[in-house]
Design a protein that fits this description.
single chain, about 550 residues, mainly beta, 7-stranded antiparallel sheet
Length: about 550
């Protein structure tokens, strides 16, 4: 007969193992993926209860049970008497049967609630006041290993980022150059909100303060959510209430502490971290404006290969990445096709003294240019680093795309000012039209207000591809010199800070646009030393426009 302790094993697949115990298949849990296409690696984040529909089914192929793995059933064993000392089903677990301490599950620090650091001492952790749980770190200073910073409450290597594509399962806080959990609530899972760059459970709905508790003890009647503070009076002395959180400073805000260093407010708003602006071989780092770090080559050295790690590697001036040979004093266009010195102007004809005029591009594009579904036969060449299709554009501070009713191609939309003199070797803007191609060049141009201490050189090349389809064309942005990002009237100082340049395309329909990820951030300088062309030289960016749609090559 089959003993009653072994009865469950006779159900379904027959398996008999020593002691009549059945194997248990276990597998690691999984955290829902954030769904971003730019995920490279993954950092630990607090566990999130996913809805049942998100749970992946068990793959039966993961457990391979063959007939040879099942012990042969010994019929004689079925009728064997049970030893007198065998434990029956009602036997209690004796003290000697208790699991060893090493078998006990580890404490999950992420669920250890706390009100202060004292509650986390036994775990050798710190208390995150925003989440009220014990964590590895709250600010960079909590990380004791050199070269690490605090990101999402974990001490991780200090890897700088310029785009979310380089952030593993996270997003890039471009001003800080650091990967974080979130910048907005949309970066978090359902049921979470973004607080100090960390996704935390969404506060419960409330009607009065009695519905709330630490770390968010107050009810915000406007939103119906529990918050840490409503005004500075709700915060400890010396702290401010920012976005309903008590902070000492505004997260991410930076200030220059010296000409070569800056201080940045920590993501939790509790203190700042000071760091030098990165330098390198024959390259010096500096801080200007609103705590923006920048670098420049020392006199007599040049950055030619676009590799920041080797600094300014050449003692010989770099070969230009700009196309030339189009006539005129600089080779970028005839004198009649150059803009006269101005600020916020546009091409105004051969004399430069009349009204703004559109440049006829039909000699280059007989079928015109199909740009987001509209065909254009002329363009306006604007001083501030762009061409437009419907009218000239004097705007000097780049508004975030899409810009209303203004189709635009912008290799460097910022506050260019060519009144600093030095033409034609400096502050020169010229264009050239030839069969199948239009080229506009901004050569060694300064920034407002007539500054020449830093200069930029860049070029826009449009090439006819009507053989593919009428109106099709290619676009190339070429960068040879990138030394400033902002004019004085755009909140900048010394060419940095404020609202940096924007690069890309705008359909002018309030919907469609393409902008480089670093646009309107200090990282836009990287267009000079990077490319979207696989294996191509730095400083060259290529796009196709097919049937009006812009696509990166």
């Amino acid at each position: 007969m089959i003993h009653e302790r072994c009865l469950p094993l006779t159900m379904g697949l027959l398996a008999l193992v020593a002691g009549c115990s059945s194997p248990v298949v276990t597998g690691p849990g999984s955290t829902p993926d954030a769904g971003r296409s730019d995920v490279l690696t993954t950092l630990d984040v607090p566990a999130v209860d996913a809805p049942a529909g998100d749970v992946a089914p068990i793959d039966a192929k993961a457990v391979d049970v063959s007939a040879s793995d099942v012990p042969e059933l010994d019929v004689a064993q079925l009728d064997a008497p049970v030893p007198p000392d065998a434990a029956g089903p009602d036997d209690a677990l004796g003290p000697t049967d208790a699991p060893a301490p090493s078998d006990l599950p580890a404490v999950d620090a992420s669920t250890s609630r706390c009100a202060s650091d004292r509650d986390c001492l036994s775990l050798n952790l710190l208390c995150d006041p925003l989440r009220a749980v014990c964590v590895d770190c709250v600010r960079d200073a909590d990380c004791l290993t050199a070269g690490t910073v605090c990101a999402s409450n974990r001490c991780v290597p200090d890897v700088r980022c310029t785009s979310s594509r380089t952030c593993p399962g996270q997003v890039c806080d471009v001003p800080l150059g650091r990967c974080v959990d979130c910048l907005a609530n949309t970066d978090c899972f359902d049921g979470q909100v973004c607080r100090a760059s960390v996704c935390v459970p969404r506060p419960p709905r409330c009607t009065t303060n009695s519905d709330c508790g630490p770390p968010a003890p107050l009810c915000n009647a406007a939103s119906g959510g529990c918050v840490a503070c409503l005004s500075a009076t709700d915060c400890p002395s010396g702290e401010r209430c920012v976005a309903n959180a008590c902070v000492l400073c505004t997260p991410g805000a930076a200030t220059c502490t010296s000409p070569t260093a800056r201080s940045v407010c920590n993501p939790d708003g509790r203190g700042t971290t000071e760091s030098p602006c990165a330098a390198g071989p024959n390259r010096v780092g500096g801080c200007a404006g609103a705590g923006v770090c920048h670098t420049a080559c020392v006199a007599g050295f040049f950055e030619c290969d676009g590799v920041a790690a080797n600094g300014c590697e050449s003692s010989v001036a770099c070969a230009s990445r700009l196309l030339s040979g189009f006539g005129g004093p600089t080779g970028f266009g005839l004198a009649t096709n150059c803009l006269h010195p101005n600020d916020d102007g546009s091409y105004a004809g051969p004399t430069g003294m009349g009204a703004v005029v559109a440049v006829d591009i039909r000699p280059a594009f007989a079928m015109g240019l199909n740009f987001f579904g509209t065909t254009y036969n002329s363009v306006y060449v604007n001083t501030n680093g762009n061409i437009t299709f419907r009218a000239a554009l004097p705007s000097y501070t780049p508004e975030p795309f899409p810009v209303a009713s203004q189709p635009m191609i912008a290799p460097w939309w910022a506050d260019v000012d060519t009144r600093g003199g030095g033409q034609p070797s400096r502050n020169s803007i010229c264009f050239a039209t030839e069969p199948g191609r239009f080229i506009a060049t901004w050569f060694n141009v300064g920034y407002f207000n007539a500054h020449n201490d830093r200069l930029n050189s860049f070029q826009l090349v449009l090439t006819d591809r009507s053989a593919v389809a009428a109106g099709d064309f290619d676009v190339e942005f070429r960068y040879d010199r990138c030394e400033w990002i902002t004019g004085d009237a755009s909140g900048g100082t010394g060419g940095f800070g404020g609202t940096p340049a924007q690069v890309g395309f705008d359909a002018g329909d309030r919907m469609n646009f393409v902008a480089l990820p670093a646009s309107r951030t200090p990282a836009i300088l990287d267009v000079c030393r990077s490319t979207n062309v696989g294996g191509g030289p730095p400083g060259i960016w290529r796009f196709t426009v097919r049937r009006g749609v812009v696509t990166a090559m």
